[in-house]
Amino acid sequence: MSGAAIPVTIQGAAGYGGQELLRLLQAHPRFRVVAASSRRHAGKPVEQILPQLTGFYPDLNFTTPEQALEVECAAVFLATPHGVSRTLWHTVVSRLPEARVVDLSGDFRLRDRAAFDRWYGGEHPHFEAVSEFRYGLTETNREAVRSARYVANPGCFATGALLALAPLAERGLLKHGATVVATTGSSGSGAEAKATTHHPERAQDHRAYKVLRHQHQPEIDQELQRLGAQARVALVPQSGAFSRGIFTVAHVELEEQTDVAALLRTRYADEPFVRVREQSPALRYVVRTNFCDVSAVQEGRDVIVLTALDNLVKGMSGQAIQNLNLMFGLEETAGLHHPGASV
Ligand SMILES: NC(=O)c1ccc[n+]([C@@H]2O[C@H](COP(=O)([O-])OP(=O)(O)OC[C@H]3O[C@@H](n4cnc5c(N)ncnc54)[C@H](OP(=O)(O)O)[C@@H]3O)[C@@H](O)[C@H]2O)c1
C-alpha cells in the first residue's frame, strides 16, 4: 500500500497496549510512530526499555506526555487508563485540532451519563464529547468508524462477548438475555505488577472477579441493545493462568429453533478478522493476531457461542489500528493480516 507516511503518536507507550501498538505499527505500510510517551521512561531510547523492539525503533526516545503533544502528527492513540484519557483527549485536540484520536480506555464508550457515573465514576469534564466518539467495533459499526474523528475502542471482554452475540441481537434472537463467562489472561490488568497478577499466586489459580459488577457489562448491553437485543447480559469475568487471551462462553436460550452456526457463518463470511470454526476456538491459534475465532454448539434451543481472541491485539491495540485504518481510508487489514501459530 503505497503513499506518504502518516505520522502517529502513542500516549502511554510503555504500557502493555502501548508496547503492542509499537510492535504492530513497525510493520504498518503507512502509519509511522513519531512520538511515544512514558512518564517513567522519558528521555530513554524505546529500544533500551523494550528490548523486544531492538532494531525497529533506532531513533525513537520516550518523551513526556507533554513533549509528545508538541510533535506534529495526524493521529493519536491514547493507551492510557480511564480517568486519564478523558482529560488527555481534550489536551490533544486543543493542541492538534486536526488529529484523529483512538482512545483505548473506557472514558468515551458509555453514552448514558448515569451508567458512566455508576460503572466508572469520578469527574468527567468532557462527557458531552462522548457524542463525538464512535464505538470502534468495526464488525458492527464500520461505516460510523470510517467517517469518525474520534473512536472509543471497545473493551477486551466486550469485544469477545459482542462478537459472540451481535449476530443473534441483529436477528432479534436475544429476547431473554445471555450469560457470558469470560476468562482473561493476566496482561488484561496492565503492565504494573499487582497482587492478582503475581505469578506464584496466579499461575495455579482460576477465579471469578467483579461478577455482575465489571465495567464492560454496560458497554456490552449498550451495543447489543443498539443492535436489537431486548435483554441484558450477565457477565462473569474470570482470571486465567495465562498471560494473553480471552476465552468467552456465551449461553443463550432461544425462543425458536435457529441454526446459530449457520447464522455465524453467513454473518462473518466477509469479515477479515472473524473466523468461524467447526470446533472450539483455541487461544493458541489467535494469540498475537488480530483474529477472533468463533464457534457455536447447539442442543435444541440452548446455544453456546464460544470466542477466543488476544486481549492485547483484537481486544485492544490491533483493533485500534483496524479502526485507524478505516478512519484514514486505508485497507482495514493494513499491517494486521498475519496468521497465528500452533504453539
Ligand atoms: N490490558 C488489556 O488487556 C486492555 C484491553 C483493552 C483495553 N485496555 C485499556 O487500555 C488502556 C491501557 O491499558 P494497558 O493494559 O496498556 O495499561 P498499562 O499497561 O497500565 O499502561 C498504561 C500506561 O499509561 C501511562 N499513564 C498512566 N497515567 C498516565 C498519565 N496521567 N498521563 C500519561 N500517561 C499515563 C503509564 O505509563 P507511564 O507511567 O510510563 O507514563 C502506563 O504505562 C486502559 O485504559 C485499559 O483499560 C486494556
Describe the overall structure:
The protein has helices at 16-25, 46-49, 65-69, 85-95, 113-119, 138-146, 156-170, 199-202, 216-227, 260-267, 283-286, 313-327, and strands at residues 6-11, 31-37, 62-63, 75-78, 100-103, 133-135, 150-152, 178-184, 207-208, 233-239, 246-253, 274-276, 292-299, 302-309. With 343 residues, it is α/β, with parallel strands linked by helices. It has 2 domains: 6-154 and 314-327, 3-Layer(aba) Sandwich (Rossmann fold), CATH 3.40.50; 156-311, Dihydrodipicolinate Reductase, domain 2 (2-Layer Sandwich). The strands form 2 sheets. Strands 3-2-1-4-5-7-6 form a 7-stranded parallel beta sheet, sandwiched between helices. Strands 9-10-8-11-14-13-12 form a 7-stranded mixed beta sheet. Strand 2 (31-37), helix 2 (46-49) and strand 3 (62-63) form a beta-alpha-beta unit. Helix 1 packs across helix 12, helix 6 packs parallel to helix 12 and helix 7 runs parallel beside helix 9. It starts with 5 loop residues before the first strand and ends in a 16-residue tail after the last helix. Bound molecules: NADP nicotinamide-adenine-dinucleotide phosphate.
SS-based class: alpha/beta
Put simply, the count of helices is 12
Output the radius of gyration.
19 Å
Instruction: Specify the helix fraction band.
Output: 25-40%
CATH superfamily of the largest domain: NAD(P)-binding Rossmann-like Domain
How many beta-strand elements? 14
* Number of separate domains: 2
- Relative strand content: 15-25%
Q: How is the biggest beta sheet arranged?
A: 7 strands, parallel
**Overall 3D geometry?**
globular
The CATH architecture assignment of the largest domain turns out to be 3-Layer(aba) Sandwich
CATH class of the largest domain: Alpha Beta
Q: List the uncertain runs.
A: none
Order of helices and strands: EHEHEHEHEHEHEHEHEHEEHEHEEH
